[in-house]
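Hi L.,

You mentioned the student needs an example of a multi-chain input paired with its predicted structure. This one should do, with 976 residues in total across all chains.
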Amino acid sequence: MVVVRLKNVSKRFGKVVAVDDVTLEIKEGEFFTFLGPSGCGKTTTLRIIAGLEYPDKGRIFFDDEDVTDVPPYKRNTGMVFQNYALWPHMTVFENISYGLKIRGYSKHEIKKKVDEVLELVQLKGLENRYPTQLSGGQQQRVALARALVIEPKVLLLDEPLSNLDARLRVEMREELKRLQKELKITTIYVTHDQEEALVISDRIAVMRQGRIMQVGEPDEVYRRPKNLFVATFLGRCSLIEGKVVDVDKDLVTIAIDHIRIKGVLPDKDMKLRKGEEAYAVLKPEDFALRIDDPSKANEFTGTVEWLFFVGPFNQIRLGLGRISILVNVEPWFTPSLKSKVTVYIPYEYVIILPKKEQEVCQET
Amino acid sequence: MNLNIKLIKRELDPLTVTQLIIVGLILGAFLVLPVSFMILRAFFHKGSLSLYYFESLVAGGDFIKTKPETSWIELVRTPQGEILIIGRKGPDFGIFLNTLFVSTMVMIFATTLGVLAAFIMARYEFPGKNFFKVILLIPMLATPFVNAFVLGKVLAVNGLVNYLLYETLKILPFKIWVTGLPALILIQTLSLYPIVYLNAYSSFINIDPSLEEQAENLGAKGLKLFLTITLPLALPGISAGAALVFIFSMEDLGAPIGLSGAFGSGLHEKILSFRIYDEFRKGIGSIEQVHASTYAMAVVMLIIALAIFLLIKKYVTLKSYAMLSKGGRWKPRVRRLGVKGLVPIYVFLIILALSASFPQFGVVVLAFTDWAMSKLPSKVTLEHISALLVNREVFRAILNSLIYSSVATLIMLLVGTSAAYVVARRKIPGRDLIDALSTLPIAIPGIIVAVGYLLFFATYFSQTPLDPFFNPGLLLIFSYSVRRLPFTARTVFAGFQQVHESLEEAALNLGADRAKVFFTIALPLIISNVISGGILSFVYSMNEVSTSITLSNLNPNQGPITFYMSQVIYASAAVGTVSVAAALGVLLIVAQILAISVSNYILKQRVAFLGV
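Structure written out for the whole complex:
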């Protein structure tokens, strides 16, 4: 159980900046996730923590020990690779006991520890199989067992669920979370799947082009995105661009044509003044057809341009003159095209972001 | 800069350092230094930098003939009838141009035959295809000297061809005798075309059918389709094969010596490789007796070989099209043919297969019959085969070969695995140099290695175990290790490329240092590549000709199989011994078939022959 700290860590491959001045602290026993699109530097960051890559700049600390120059085989981290990296020439038992043998445990101790960890990941009885004789889910558990059995200081997981089918992925992420809480081990997780990150993590760092865009608890990064990238990467949203026409304490109003949108800034340090350009971030699930207190909500009336059946809800593209917004409505509500619909969204759910912000996430 | 040193330091763990030392020591001492020293020697005359030796080569008049002899064909009347002699008086352009002429012609003919055969085999389906698949590769089974001897015997004035076509069937109005450079070109074309054939075949097979289908869809077909899509896509592979054919033809000693055995001296000896070899045969007793123009000739050869190799390597790298279409297995485009198409294909394949595999069959016949002493074989005998064990000299040659090749294989495995691992896994400066040095020996004619060894080790290691005048055997071990290194290095490298690096990183992560990772993860995972590479290198060491037959002249007791064969064929004094050489050829053929079968069927390695 250690605190992992990164201080001004940078790494480039040729001309590509993979990690750009990353500084952060991962707490003891925390489940911490790096989330971002492919190529954002999350896996490189993980590999730097494991010692498999050497940073161009910056230091890495485990508790107070500077491990930057410690080779990977002396760091005592347990890593699960995206492709599991199980050795095909060894049995399950040999794979799992590899790290123990290197640490000089006796035969008896090895047997005991491997038995325990196999129990933990529910793989008893498969000791003598070879990796190719296992299903994807089983292989994944072997890789996890192999990393856990050495009782690492930090558990490093590089998109461990991405090779599993959808159902198994959901099961395994719950199991991972359970194991992590049981073992209270500091865990660093890398994924590009935002839902997975939100469900499994204690805290999330959203990364883009090597930089950390925002760090926070899942609801915080989801509900209070501090920049356009985070806003557009996590979930879908409608972005409306306008000019600030009023600032009243926390509430900021922007206008586009005749439409007024009132919302809040995600951060107390952020300031906007009248006349500045800004974006309003509107998440489709925050809209309602009715509301108890219309005085604290934006009201939009528009024409139904399109209706999507999504399953758990219906999604409407609502035209408001030059702009349009996405709105989720109850599955029984099926307005005909071109009909008028009025929807509400509370002020506090609308995030206003200054325009001098970064570009939108291109993945959505 | 500071940072780079730090990074390099991180890469230089004890394992990597050891591997670098092994590679550097062997390649440095037994390739780079001797060859460089020889080059220097060729450019120094009386203590100063000079082109003296090159000038005297040209001045000699025999190097480049200003008035080349070009009367190729002559009709001679003899008591036995008229003989049409091809290649006895000419062409002769001088040693240097003869070499280029022969290699260029061999390259053109071998490429034409190889590409044609490959296209037929890759794109058409016909009865007997599998049979031809095997038979077309028979020329790959090396039987140095004897195959040329057989061909000489067949094409001689009293040979099989004339016996059949002139005496028996009376189709020809006169006897035909092919000798000199045309004979050389014929023999080398027949034994080297499989290199182009294999390269072209795999290129054709690896073309995504949808690329051709798309062209057909847009209206291209037949020759147009072939010239605009198929050929350009296969060209890198084909040209790599063609370049190797050129280099192999230039360094070949087996064919000229075999022809000398069959016909005696002639124009087929007027090429660079033979001239350098001749220097060794004079029975030199000390390094001073070697004429310095030999070094100049070797340098000329080296320059040509390296230029071709580097050019083709650059071209292939530039033109290696990363196939855009996703991998995966596709059904190759194979067409069935009607009778009208089948006839020319059969005619072509049968003539090619018959003439190309004839020498190998001839070697077997020579070994098991009395053919060496008669016009046609009359009785089967095991006496030549039993000579392999009974004849003390022959047995000693076999033993020498086995010892040299075994030790060389161990060295090659050590060096090849080290080089391949460093190139595949370590990010250090100089990695490209190691990569280049471990594939370069393919392009360096063996005769040059021999000259380099003689000069370098006789100069600096006189009176030591490495003295070529006492111990050519020890030097042969190292020459095999260097010359056949590309086979091991490439097979092993291919293995490392297939192993995902994360398998090794997982072990690092669990606490294994790099040496442990190498021995417990990386090496076990590619062990079948290592064994397969080792077997091939062993067999190709047994076949090695150039350095074996030159260096062994300095101490014939230490000569390997190929040296014994060359002695027998070239001298061809006692006629019976040619059959023993053929028996040795059979031994080599059996060893090669065994090695390829073990690699292919037991180790399941697809034995890739050669590529640049």
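You could point out the following to them. The mean pLDDT of chain A is 91. The interface with chain B takes residues 50-52, 54, 56, 71-79, 81-83, 85-89, 98-99, 102-103, 146-147, 150, 156 of chain A (CB under 8 Å).

Best wishes,
N.
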